[in-house]
Specification:
Length: 204
């Protein structure tokens, strides 16, 4: 019995060593395979000894960073130099008007200080949205205002025009937006006189 028992223990130990070695070999093989990039499978073309690689797409490392439109869409409208100039001028005057609005927020002096910048913005937008042809019989209304779903130029102008309308500034300036109205000038004169009077006779 003792001999058979020893033989059984020896067999179990041998099997354990063999299994442990197989597991280690599998782990090493898996780690090596993970470290090396997997190559595309290849096959031998029938009737030919040449080995042909499988047509698998292999993106480069930085392919995600280089993705972009190679050309414009066919439906994109070309913008003439005249319209490009108007668009650039609109951007400049838009920035000028916003730069005036922010400091005029407190105390509120939108109508008093920013009517000149607003007039300049309205002037260039009217040129863009006009049906009249510019140099070279070019109209910029469609190419700038209606060439895309967002209609960004129209949206930007509408937002600033809404601020002007809500401020009721049209009651304080002339109709041509080139100066303060007579009522506004009269009110400002009285205001300045009142402030001067208070400053003169205030208690020390």
């Amino acid at each position: 019995m003792s001999l058979h028992r020893n033989d059984l223990v020896f067999v179990l130990i041998s099997v354990s060593i063999h299994v442990f070695g197989v597991i280690n070999a599998v782990d090493v093989t898996a780690s090596v395979s993970a470290a090396k990039p997997q190559q595309a499978p290849s096959y031998v073309s029938p009737g030919s000894s040449a080995v042909v690689s499988s047509p698998v797409f292999k993106p480069s490392v930085d392919s995600a960073l280089s993705i972009g439109l190679l050309s414009s869409f066919p439906e994109d409208l070309e913008i003439s130099e005249y319209c490009t100039g108007l668009l650039r001028l609109f951007g400049q005057r838009y920035v000028t008007y916003v730069d005036c609005l922010v400091p005029a927020a407190r105390p509120v002096k939108v109508c008093q200080d920013c009517f000149t910048a607003y007039y300049s913005l309205v002037e260039v937008f009217q040129n863009i949205s006009s049906d009249q042809m510019g140099p070279g019989n070019v109209s910029c209304r469609d190419s700038i205002l209606r060439s895309d779903r967002l209609m960004l130029v129209f949206l930007l102008y509408s937002n600033l025009d809404t601020i002007w309308q809500k401020s009721n500034c049209q009651q304080c300036v002339t109709k041509d937006l080139k100066g303060r109205s007579n009522d506004t000038l009269y009110f400002l004169t009285l205001l300045n006189q009142t402030i001067t009077c208070f400053e003169k006779y205030k208690q020390v």
